[in-house]
């Protein structure tokens, strides 16, 4: 049986017979590309310019047109390649040199951009666009110089300022973006720094600098384990990345020292913990959040060692680094309470309660306010010279001693000023004994209640002599001191009526 040929229509590119036909076809593609370019349909324009290049790959203008399209699509590296190819094909192609310069400028290479713009001015003296772009390149170089100086002096705000202005001229420069992000991280503006680094990583997931900055943000936010992962990844991409290497080493050392301090603290080795936290604080002064925690931890160890003043200083250092650090305020407030600095304690507890209105914080504030109120009254324990947990017998013995010491009759030969002062002290001793010897009054006094408001003590009707006579058993005031020249200052005898 004879074979049957079946014709199947197949779509094929039109066959071009000679170079002239290729050039005509390429010109057609170029005109179509121009049409789409004028309509701002840059993707379609790119496709037709590519077809024109495929048809006539030795035509400089086609590469120049495609470079212009790629620039509009912000694909500056590809546009740079097309511009460079255009001027390789035609060194007198002015637009090609101009576009190459603009690409270099957008990518942050001001020196290369300057060479291109000077070439344009050689080809076309007085070209205003090239002259302006040349000035922009000089401005960019100056911002780079200022930024380098600022970074060296650790003036990170100045670097961010310079990079913002540099990026207005070189919007596609990853190097400027990375430097800005790093400085934002060093300034504690972590969300902004992360955003810049993440944008770069979306375009280039292997960018070691962006990985480093991303890790730096995590490191400074005290997410040390995650930070180490990014530093290690950056080092995989760029084994010679010195900043990532140093940051990784610091992160690991900081974590290890802090954890060691926490462990010995749990084992009640407070001196060792204090020393370890001190060593950890020396690792990286730039790590604000971790150092704030370390200061607070050291304050806790210091408080355990009764180093209250140092503990207060450490808490203040923690708050200076992180003014939202509630634990530092609480620790400092407790140290103030322990050292009877109640006004300062109230101030810190008020700050805490304004931030976190919990019942526990409210209770701490009220207790500090009560102690502050108590501290402003006469301290009857100090008047008698006894501890706040003194027994009834200790209070009586203390009253006997102080009352005899300050009794007016004992100072009858003294100057009027001394007599007045001793009489005042005698009365205070009587007041103190009246309150502290009465269980109900003592409880109210210890609780911070105002005894006069409660009707438990009326200072106006108080008579210290009556308390004295009642204590010593006298009925008619028959008590006198022997103030003869032969008697000692503490001699006295009783006369009962």
Automatic annotation (TrEMBL):
InterPro entries linked: DnaJ_domain, J_dom_sf, TPR-like_helical_dom_sf, TPR_rpt
Protein name per the record: DnaJ homolog subfamily C member 7
Chief location: cytoplasm
PANTHER family (alphabetical): DNAJ HOMOLOG SUBFAMILY C MEMBER 7, DNAJ PROTEIN P58IPK HOMOLOG
Classification of source organism: Eukaryota, Metazoa, Chordata, Craniata, Vertebrata
Stated role: Acts as a co-chaperone regulating the molecular chaperones HSP70 and HSP90 in folding of steroid receptors, such as the glucocorticoid receptor and the progesterone receptor. Proposed to act as a recycling chaperone by facilitating the return of chaperone substrates to early stages of chaperoning if further folding is required. In vitro, induces ATP-independent dissociation of HSP90 but not of HSP70 from the chaperone-substrate complexes. Recruits NR1I3 to the cytoplasm.
J domain segment(s): 379-449
Keyword Transmembrane: no
Source species: Parambassis ranga
SMART domains noted in UniProt: DnaJ (SM00271), TPR (SM00028)
Pfam families xref list: DnaJ, TPR_16, TPR_8
Keywords: Acetylation, Chaperone, Cytoplasm, Cytoskeleton, Nucleus, Phosphoprotein, Repeat, TPR repeat
Ranges occupied by TPR repeats: 26-59, 94-127, 208-241, 254-287, 326-359
GO cellular component, one term: nucleus
Compartmental location: Cytoplasm, Cytoskeleton; Nucleus
PROSITE patterns with a match to the protein in the record: DNAJ_2, TPR
